[in-house]
Amino acid sequence: MDIRTLNADEISAKVKTVYNSSALILLYKDARVDMTLLDETFGASNWQRHHKEIKGNIYCNISVWDEEKKCWVEKEDVGTESMAEAEKGESSDSFKRAGTNWGIGRELYTVPKIVIKLEPGEFKDKKVFTSFYVSRIAYRNRAISELTIIDGNGKVRFDWKENNPRGNGIPAEEKKDVLESYRVDLEARIQNSDLPKERKENAIKGLPTYDKKILDNISKMLDKEGA
Description:
With 227 residues, the protein is an alpha+beta fold. Helices cover 30% and strands 32% of the residues. It has helices at residues 31-42, 86-101, 175-191, 197-205, 212-225, and strands spanning 12-19, 22-28, 47-54, 57-66, 71-78, 114-117, 123-124, 127-128, 132-140, 143-151, 156-161. A 3-stranded antiparallel beta sheet has the order 1-2-6. A 3-stranded antiparallel beta sheet has the order 3-4-5, with helices on one face. The protein has a 3-stranded antiparallel beta sheet with strand order 9-10-11, with no helix packed on it. Helix 3 packs parallel to helix 5 (212-225). It is globular, with a radius of gyration of 21 Å.
């Protein structure tokens, strides 16, 4: 039995990061959505979940009863810690990941890049003070083909259609400012890192102004160094 695609009101949106005055938005589902779709698709009495710990990691196993085969079919995945209530967050994350293995919300892997231009007063020091919501979503072959995101006042802030990507990506006139902000952030990370002085100087010299690919590679290097 196929699990349906998610409705707009079952998808949450959050800000991942802010570059200059533009916010990168991620879409996700919460655990209640997985519970609802498992009940809806298989029946509340025909699925169950179990958690176990392996080498300090929390795994969730979702079992669904197969009436034809007269057995439980199992799919599991591991969770990652959240910033607050680590064990509870890891348990919930493993459940959502196991739900994705059953097909719940897998279509979110096809989401386009969502970048929203923030307005004055909506952010400060990379903190955003407004919320965003998915108001409309459509699919083609279980891949997202249309997507509209609004703010708390109902104003459309992102509108995207397959083969007509209006609203997708950073506006051309802002790309230089965004990349320059990215470069400044990386330079600050390097300056505040524990890297040797000579490596810091060489890393800063190697920072381009507008080449995002190189900036991304340097960011990954800093992640590996723990900087």
